Amino acid sequence: MTTLRLRPEGPADEPAVARVLAAAFARPDVATPPEVGLVEELRHSPAWIPELAMVAEYGGEVVAYALLTRVGVRTDDGRVWPALALGPVAVARHRQRLGHGTAAVQAALDAATELGERLVVVLGDPAYYRRFGFGPADRLGLTSPWSGLGEPWQALVLPPSASEEPPPPSGEVVFPPPWSRV
């Protein structure tokens, strides 16, 4: 019986991840979707956290991908606090609607919680991301270049590693340079 295997991406997975991203984000007006380049650039940036680039493998094939990378929250006093951005998330077309994307996202969020991360932002379909606990980012006082898009701009507060941890800060979410090209 074939089972879904969830694990961090390794160097040998890069071509398969690129194929899944290219198929999931294919558009007739571009040869290669920008999400493929985004992941490649993030891999070579300080935003990359190897343990949080999660693949779902089925029958030896990478069929889903969920990526969390470092962003910051700039507070009113100018300090920048660590946070994470979720995306891109992609599933091979022939394995969609089977729970593989959900499993990859949950595995990435679980790994982030284990690392002591507290805040994740995402721009995406509220109906999909609500299942993980995401809600409107503006309710947490978080702004970004995508705030004006309304409901798709979402955030999730992860469980604290210690009960006395304060809630994550509010402020402007600052994305690393590769995100500006998407």
Topology:
Layout: E1 4-8, H1 14-24, H2 34-43, E2 53-58, E3 61-74, E4 80-91, H3 100-114, E5 119-123, H4 126-129, E6 135-136, E7 142-143, E8 153-157, E9 171-174
Parallel strand pairs: 4-5, 7-9
Antiparallel strand pairs: 1-2, 2-3, 3-4, 3-9, 5-8, 6-8
Percent in strands: 25-35%
Order of helices and strands: EHHEEEHEHEEEE
Largest sheet: 9 strands, mixed
Termini gap: 39 Å
Average pLDDT, all residues: 94
| Tally of separate helices | 4
Instruction: Write down the domain tally.
Output: 1
Number of strands: 9
User: What is the annotated CATH architecture?
Assistant: 3-Layer(aba) Sandwich
| CATH fold label | Aminopeptidase
CATH class: Alpha Beta
Query: Which structural category fits the helices and strands?
Result: alpha+beta
Low-confidence segments: none
Rg from Cα: 16 Å
Gross morphology is globular
CATH superfamily: Gcn5-related N-acetyltransferase (GNAT)
* Residues in helix, %: 10-25%
GO molecular function: acyltransferase activity
Protein name: Acetyltransferase
Region (Disordered): 158-182
Enzyme class: transferase
